[in-house]
Amino acid sequence: MAKPPFNFYAVSGLVDTEPVRQYTSGVQELDTFIHGGYKDLEENNVTALSAVFLGNTIVGMYALSSASTQAISKNKQRELAFGDAGNYNSLPLLSIDHLSVNEPYQYESTVDHPGLGTAILRHIFRIVVDLRMDYGVAIAGIIVDSLPGPVDFYLSRGFVYFNEHEENAINKETYKLVISYDKIEKACEL
């Protein structure tokens, strides 16, 4: 996978935070998180917000944390997503707590020209593979609580619904989606 022309910085380490205040994804829930909702979470080491820069402009944001799943009984969706590992009661996962693209830079992606959301997701995939390969950290995959609008974005990039209840739910505030490490690693090979 070719390295994107972006730089990634922790928002907490930025000297000039004015670009963060000016950032908008156009989605109120996401913007509320960016403009301060993350601060208490980050101070308590629950999540970490990063800014994606193209030159001096923030074009995207993402926040990550560690997570695990709990399952009381077998679940077809978990087995579909994680294969044999889906049978374990708990799985180590990386959580995407936030992923957005600055509104002026949002556009439809194509195979030849992936959008910024896809580029950011590929960067997150690379983080997972690096943690596994370079640092020996076991990660079964990624989990995200997606707002309804981006569900198709995640599904088209290899994520599946976490369970049957998520897949069949109507009018939920968020949908829990997952992708396995194997799919992440294959995406990084492209």
Automatic annotation (TrEMBL):
<keyword id="KW-0687">Ribonucleoprotein</keyword>
<dbReference type="GO" id="GO:0005840">
    <property type="term" value="C:ribosome"/>
</dbReference>
<keyword id="KW-0689">Ribosomal protein</keyword>
<protein>
    <submittedName>
        <fullName>Ribosomal protein S18 acetylase RimI and related acetyltransferases (RimI)</fullName>
    </submittedName>
</protein>
